[in-house]
């Protein structure tokens, strides 16, 4: 038995020795590394705000082990960039082996130091590799942007102009009796969880060419349409004369809350030509308030596109509600009209009056409208010349009588509106849409500004206006 053990040990030793001899190193000065990128490029990064992490993969495409003598961040510790090399958070490392046909990862982050420039600035550095005396480098490029930083501030009357973006941390509050005016083209960015709270008045003066944009502070392409990146806009009880025109409000937990459920002091909002999209919960959250909305798109909200409860006087003209939220399983309809709400076992009851004209209410659910009527309060609602998604079979959760003209007039029900591309969030109408020319001219003629759609295109150049916020213009 002992002789057999010695023999096995001798054979294993030979195999190990032979394997060690095969682990030869590539020593040619012509041996080069390969990289997944020749330039690691970052989108615009705000001053003092760290970027997302970019990944660089380093390959040994040779048949022998390749020893990297050194990997260095050219700018060293004074650089705006930071490295994680093969699991080590450092900007320089020596003597790294990569096995034949194997690879390693380097992760890169960047932070931009503030300066006095308003325009974007370019930050440049490189990662330098030395292998067998052969020098290679990979460029690092980021674009930085200075901002007006707002953090836990209560402000008085002021005007924001389009010189550089505004970045809100935690919260910004507009004091009562004060007005925040935001001019065309201004971009407002919110850090995670940040909110804009308006006790006084907000006026947003965007245009078709230069809308005012409210969004998160992560500008990488991967965050373009991700909901929940920031909090919401709150128009508190008593907030008055609010006007939002040509704005884009996207990727938040909720869009705009108007009023408060437990307050008898009303709030108001006139909102036009505005897109509210990609919200974790609500697009519009309306309590004890008055809202006039025209040419607005409310799209892709995890709960309701518009939740209106207790007391309210709300008018929606040429609005498109399109709910195809796909980040979670959506249960609620896109529109809730209710004259009551229960919060912590306390019921609040009021009088509700809601009207929708020449609008589209559609989405991926079979039922996209809910009405909750408490007999102790008044409930008035009406859909006139609208395209709706209301279930009418025996399995319907919400019962509606579409022949009741006090609530429904000239309705197109359960017919796909024919949006151009819901995957790409394009809710313009395709050429064969049933919503095309299905609007009422008398509704459009109520207000001069309804003669033009959200893109500034004429609605009165053909026989009848189209339903929704977008007018189909045939070439």
- Per CATH, the architecture of the largest domain is 3 Solenoid
> What is the highest CATH level, the class of the largest domain?
Mainly Beta
* Count of distinct structural domains: 2
CATH topology of the largest domain: Pectate Lyase C-like
Q: Quick one: how many beta strands? A: 39
- Shape field: elongated
Rg value: 30 Å
Stretches with pLDDT under 50, minimum 5 residues: 1-22
Assign a percent range to the helix content. Answer: under 10%
Indicate the proportion of strand residues.
35-45%
Describe what this molecule looks like in 3D:
With 475 residues, this protein is mainly β. It has two domains: 34-144, Sandwich (Immunoglobulin-like); 146-451, 3 Solenoid (Pectate Lyase C-like). The chain is built from two helices and 39 strands. The strands form five sheets. It has a 26-stranded parallel beta sheet that branches. A five-stranded mixed beta sheet has the order 2-9-8-4-6, with no helix packed on it. It has a four-stranded antiparallel beta sheet with strand order 1-3-7-5, with no helix packed on it. Strand 29 and strand 30 form a beta hairpin. The longest helix has 21 residues, at 2-22. It starts with a helix and ends in a 31-residue tail after the last helix. Residues 1-22 have low confidence and may be disordered.
Summed up, what is this model?
The chain contains two helices and 39 strands. With 475 residues, it is mainly β. A hairpin with a 4-residue loop joins strand 38 (419-421) and strand 39.
Indicate the topology.
Elements: H1 2-22, E1 34-35, E2 39-46, E3 54-59, E4 66-73, E5 81-85, E6 92-98, E7 103-110, E8 121-131, E9 134-145, E10 148-155, E11 158-160, E12 166-174, E13 179-182, E14 187-190, E15 195-198, E16 201-205, E17 212-216, E18 233-235, E19 242-245, E20 247-250, E21 256-258, E22 267-272, E23 275-279, E24 284-294, E25 297-301, E26 306-317, E27 320-323, E28 335-338, E29 340-343, E30 346-349, E31 352-357, E32 360-363, E33 369-372, E34 379-384, E35 387-388, E36 408-409, E37 412-413, E38 419-421, E39 426-429, H2 441-444
Parallel strand pairs: 2-9, 10-12, 11-13, 12-14, 12-15, 13-16, 14-17, 15-18, 16-19, 17-20, 18-21, 19-22, 20-23, 21-24, 22-24, 23-25, 24-26, 25-27, 26-28, 26-31, 27-32, 28-33, 31-34, 32-35, 34-36, 35-37
Antiparallel strand pairs: 1-3, 3-7, 4-6, 4-8, 5-7, 8-9, 29-30, 38-39
């Amino acid at each position: 038995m002992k002789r057999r053990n010695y023999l096995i040990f001798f054979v294993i030793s030979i195999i190990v020795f032979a394997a060690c001899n095969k682990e030869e190193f590539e020593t040619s000065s012509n041996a080069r590394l390969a990289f997944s990128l020749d330039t690691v490029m970052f989108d615009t990064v705000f001053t003092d705000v760290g970027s997302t992490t970019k990944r660089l993969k380093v390959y040994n495409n040779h048949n022998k082990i390749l020893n990297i003598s050194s990997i260095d961040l050219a700018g060293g510790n004074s650089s705006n960039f930071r490295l994680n090399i093969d699991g080590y958070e450092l900007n320089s490392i020596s003597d790294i082996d990569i096995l034949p046909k194997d690879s390693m990862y380097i992760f890169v982050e960047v932070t931009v130091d503030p300066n006095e420039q308003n325009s974007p600035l370019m930050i440049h550095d490189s990662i330098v590799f030395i292998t067998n005396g052969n020098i290679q480098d990979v460029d690092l490029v980021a674009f930085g942007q200075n901002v007006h930083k707002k953090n836990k501030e209560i402000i008085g009357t002021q005007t924001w102009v389009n010189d550089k973006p505004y970045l809100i941390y935690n919260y910004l509050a507009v004091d009562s009796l004060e007005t925040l005016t935001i001019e065309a083209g201004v971009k407002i960015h919110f850090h995670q969880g940040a909110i804009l709270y308006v006790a006084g008045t907000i006026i947003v003066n965007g245009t078709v060419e230069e809308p005012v944009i409210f969004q998160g502070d992560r500008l990488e392409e991967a965050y373009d349409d991700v909901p929940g990146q920031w909090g919401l806009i709150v128009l508190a009880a008593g907030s008055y004369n609010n006007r939002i025109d040509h704005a884009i409000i996207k990727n938040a937990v909720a869009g705009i809350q108007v009023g408060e459920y437990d307050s008898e002091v009303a709030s108001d909002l006139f909102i036009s030509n505005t897109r509210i999209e990609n919200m974790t919960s609500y697009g519009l959250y309306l309590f004890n308030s008055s809202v006039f909305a025209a040419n607005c798109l409310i799209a892709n909200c995890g709960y309701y596109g518009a939740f209106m409860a207790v007391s309210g006087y709300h008018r929606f003209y040429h609005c498109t509600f399109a709910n195809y939220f796909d980040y979670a399983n959506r249960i609620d309809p896109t529109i809730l009209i209710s004259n009551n709400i229960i919060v912590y076992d306390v019921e609040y009851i009021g009088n509700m009056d809601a009207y929708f004209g020449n609008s589209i209410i559609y989405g991926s659910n079979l039922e996209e409208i809910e009405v909750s009527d408490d007999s102790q309060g008044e409930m008035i609602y009406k859909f006139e010349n609208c395209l709706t998604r209301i279930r009418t079979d025996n399995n319907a959760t919400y019962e509606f009588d579409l022949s009741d003209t006090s609530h429904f007039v000239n309705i197109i029900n359960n017919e796909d509106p024919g949006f151009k591309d819901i995957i790409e969030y394009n809710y313009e109408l395709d050429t064969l849409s049933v919503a095309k020319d299905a609007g009422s001219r008398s509704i459009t003629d109520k207000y001069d500004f309804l003669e033009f759609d959200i893109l500034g295109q004429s609605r009165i150049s053909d026989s009848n206006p189209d339903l929704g916020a977008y007018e189909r213009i045939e070439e």
